[in-house]
Design brief:
With 143 residues, this protein is α+β, with helices and mostly antiparallel strands. Helix content is 36%, strand content 13%. It has a 3-stranded antiparallel sheet with strand order 1-3-2, with helices on both faces.
Amino acid sequence: MTTDTWQKHPLFINTVLANIVVEQIVSCRDRGFYKLHSFVLMPNHLHVLLTPGETATVEKAMQMIKGGSAHRIGIEKPQKFPIWHSGFHDRWMRDAEEYRGSKRYINQNPMEAKLAEKPEDYAFSSANGKFVLDLSRFDEIRG
């Protein structure tokens, strides 16, 4: 799934705001709303690869990430405008190749934007190895 900040403002160059979003992504995963496979928070957008939990939908998962982070930002560092653009784009993974391609794209996003030299150098990405990720059924398929 992909979502943008309001009017594509580069809000998440502010590390305090970026950390709030990352903490919300991890917290929602830990609470069982979804299985988290990969994510990257860029200055003006978010990519997240997840599988909804048994009692959550894709819409609920994104609501928890966006709504929860916006709420926390509003308390900790109020903004004069909304945090997120309404809505999001989702894409269902049909096979292991598409899944791996999406994961690779997410991991490489900071390098493409010249925010890091290597995936593990970018603090706001699951590629840095600091976050627990869940395997998907596609991770088990080799081909």
